[in-house]
């Protein structure tokens, strides 16, 4: 049921079994799962069904440190559905190696094993609408070529692992289910500004919610789950420091530390020496029509032997902005995305990533389009339909290269670093919440990982006689450092640990020393993997839901 903010009274207390803060993908999944278990849930969301600049401004950071972080409105969305309104749609789980303690990656010890999460993958794929929980192309029927190019067999380097794609907006996809559930009350337009704790037990007694129109409400439950996204969850804890010095969960001094994500960019292209027509450069589809893509990755033994962080690479178009590619479709895409109209077509972060790079004159782009008119016209129709009318939506586009050369985009885990951190300032938003300061830092190890991975990919291609890497211009370490930038995956600031002194939450996401407060967010991740965060956030969300439903059942059994 949707509770209209207009119907709320100033000072009202809303009681439930569980309060969930934040209706992004994680909050929506937990609300639905708990409702299925018959639990009475209040789901509180800062934003509304559509975007609002005034609400979005509440999340602004006071400052973003020296570098390496996009503006907050490009990496969060205060709206029903959260960041899934603006995400890319790449669905990929973490690997077993991500959960292993690796001596060469400091602070890499998780309290959870891969197998404990893998049992939720099918449910996650269901929520994401991304088909079956199968990420090895050898087990997907109907795909004849296993490797990215013929003859490139898996060894230490793999090309048989795939990513799935699903461009869904959780706010739209699940609005009806939330509204119709008799167990869920959804409050939009209410921002949680402080978690209030009892002075005696330190447990949460209520959460304070405020609207921009000036109303204050109290949310009182047996249990509370924070799903406000990595940055906003951390900010809410840091702001709740009346009883717990430094904020709730800061018993170890680690709240806000280890702020990480990924290192990504491009420094090389792959020049294949195989039949250009047989290069798997674009999307495949599975039997459900779900979009799939192959990528370069590594097996665990190779990562361990070379002591490198988990990293993958995928083939991409040449930079759209540089008309020397001579491709009408790429020039058309560049002109549209760099025009004022571009921001209505894709999220700002994705638009900016697509149009950055060496600029050429518009005349050259227009000439490319005219010289390549039939293909460009065909693309306008087919891509427009696939992206905005078809279901599932087309996630993107890749252009065939006659020369069989493709840029290689790398995407690797960022090494956990306690000095990369989010902290609180004295600057306040309109609702009185203190804003954050972000100091996002990469390490030399992150840069070294990227260079080593490229050497291994190059050696593998050469050994198998399938081609080689050609490095793009520039000094490699500086280019990698200049490309380094992330705020989209928001990892580490409420990290998981078995021992309270080594983290903020336990293996279920319960805040150490506080019996009734849980977190389901990328902020609980210990390491970042080669995978984007959504899939694993939802696996943890599904796992936490089962845990909470189990506790609720045993509470009611022991009371009867
Ligand atoms: C541009 C972009 C591209 C991305 N692409 C990918 C991709 O391809 N694949 C992938 O796996 N991941 C991707 N991600 C990351 C992914 O979208 C996020 O990890 C995921 O959506 C996070 O979900 P969440 O529910 O944990 O948090 P969020 O989506 O951030 O949701 C949090 C919700 O809480 C609400 N909220 C915040 N503060 C409060 C408060 N104080 N009170 C009440 N409500 C509050 C917010 O309004 C929001 O609705 C991308 C992210 C961005 C920004």
- How much of the sequence lies in strands comes to 15-25%
Our measurement of the CA-to-CA distance between the termini, rounded to an integer number of angstroms, reads 29 Å
The largest β sheet comes out as: 8 strands, mixed
Number of helices: 15
The CATH class assignment of the largest domain is Alpha Beta
What form results from the Cα inertia axes?
Answer: globular
The assembly state of the depicted protein chains is single chain
What number is the mean pLDDT? 94
Number of domains: 3
Secondary-structure arrangement, i.e. CATH architecture of the largest domain: 3-Layer(bba) Sandwich
Which ligands, by name, code or SMILES, are bound? Answer: flavin-adenine dinucleotide
Record field, number of beta strands: 20
Molecular structure report:
- This protein is α/β, with parallel strands linked by helices.
- The chain is built from 15 helices and 20 strands.
- It has 3 domains: 2-131 and 166-261 and 416-442 and 484-559, FAD/NAD(P)-binding domain (3-Layer(bba) Sandwich), CATH 3.50.50; 136-164 and 262-316 and 398-413 and 457-483; 318-397, no CATH class.
- The protein has helices at 25-36, 53-57, 72-75, 114-118, 121-128, 170-180, 230-239, 300-306, 328-337, 348-355, 362-371, 373-388, 444-463, 476-483, 534-559; strands at 2-3, 13-21, 41-45, 90-91, 157-158, 162-165, 184-188, 191-197, 204-210, 216-226, 262-272, 284-285, 291-294, 297-298, 311-316, 405-413, 421-428, 434-439, 467-471, 517-519.
- Strands 1, 2, 3, 7, 8, 9, 10 and 20 form an 8-stranded mixed sheet that branches. It has a 4-stranded antiparallel sheet with strand order 4-6-13-12, with no helix packed on it. The chain has a 4-stranded antiparallel sheet with strand order 15-16-11-19.
- The longest helix has 26 residues, at 534-559.
- The chain is globular.
- The two termini are 29 Å apart.
- The mean pLDDT is 94.
- The site of flavin-adenine dinucleotide has 42 residues, from helix 1, strand 3, strand 8, helix 7 and helix 10.
């Amino acid at each position: 049921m949707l509770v209209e903010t207009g119907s709320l009274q100033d000072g009202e207390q809303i009681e439930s079994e569980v309060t969930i803060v934040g209706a992004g993908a994680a909050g929506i999944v937990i609300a639905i799962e708990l409702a299925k278990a018959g639990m009475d849930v209040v789901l509180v969301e800062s934003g509304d069904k559509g975007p609002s600049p005034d609400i979005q401004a509440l999340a602004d950071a006071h400052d973003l440190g020296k570098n390496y972080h996009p503006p907050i409105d490009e990496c969060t969305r205060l709206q029903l559905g959260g960041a899934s309104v603006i995400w890319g749609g790449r669905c990929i789980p973490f690997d077993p190696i991500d959960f292993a303690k690796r001596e060469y990656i400091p602070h890499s010890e998780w309290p959870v094993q891969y197998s404990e999460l893998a049992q939720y993958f099918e449910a996650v794929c269901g929520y994401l609408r991304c088909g079956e929980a199968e990420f090895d192309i050898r087990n997907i029927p109907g795909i004849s070529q296993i490797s990215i190019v013929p003859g490139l067999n898996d060894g230490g380097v793999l090309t048989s692992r795939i990513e799935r794609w699903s461009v869904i907006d959780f706010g739209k996809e699940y609005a009806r289910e939330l509204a119709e559930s008799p167990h869920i009350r959804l409050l939009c337009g209410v921002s949680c500004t402080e978690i209030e704790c009892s002075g005696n037990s330190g447990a949460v007694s209520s959460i304070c919610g405020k609207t921009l129109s000036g109303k204050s409400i109290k949310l009182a439950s047996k249990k509370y789950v924070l799903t406000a996204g990595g940055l906003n969850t951390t900010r809410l804890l840091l702001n709740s420091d009346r009883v717990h010095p430094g904020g709730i969960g800061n018993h170890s001094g680690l709240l806000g530390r280890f702020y990480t994500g990924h290192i990504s960019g491009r420094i090389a292209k792959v020049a294949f020496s195989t039949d250009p027509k047989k290069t798997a450069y674009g999307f495949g589809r599975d039997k459900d029509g779900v979009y799939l893509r192959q990528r370069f990755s590594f097996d665990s033994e190779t990562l361990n032997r070379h002591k490198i962080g988990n990293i993958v690479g995928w083939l991409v178009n040449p930079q759209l902005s540089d008309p020397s590619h001579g491709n009408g479709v790429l020039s058309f895409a560049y002109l549209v995305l760099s025009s004022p109209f571009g921001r209505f077509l894709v999220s700002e972060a994705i638009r900016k990533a697509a149009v950055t790079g060496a600029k050429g004159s518009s005349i050259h782009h227009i000439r490319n389009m005219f010289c390549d008119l039939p293909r460009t016209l065909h693309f306008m129709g087919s891509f427009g339909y696939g992206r905005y009318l078809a279901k599932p939506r087309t996630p993107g586009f890749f252009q065939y290269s006659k020369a069989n050369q493709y840029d290689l985009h790398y995407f690797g885990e960022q090494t956990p670093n306690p000095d990369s951190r989010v902290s609180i300032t004295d600057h306040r938003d309109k609702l009185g919440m203190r804003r954050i300061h972000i100091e996002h830092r990469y390490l030399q190890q992150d840069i070294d990982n990227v260079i080593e991975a490229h050497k291994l990919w190059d050696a593998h291609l050469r050994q198998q006689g399938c081609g080689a890497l050609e490095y793009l211009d520039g000094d490699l370490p500086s280019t990698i450092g200049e490309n380094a930038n992330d705020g989209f995956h928001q990892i580490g600031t409420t990290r998981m640990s078995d021992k309270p002194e080594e983290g903020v939450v336990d293996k279920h996401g319960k805040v150490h020393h506080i019996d009734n407060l849980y977190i389901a967010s990328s902020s609980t991740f210990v390491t970042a993997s080669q995978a984007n965060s959504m899939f694993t956030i939802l696996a943890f969300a599904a796992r936490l839901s089962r845990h909470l439903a189990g506790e609720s059942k045993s509470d009611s059994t022991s009371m009867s």
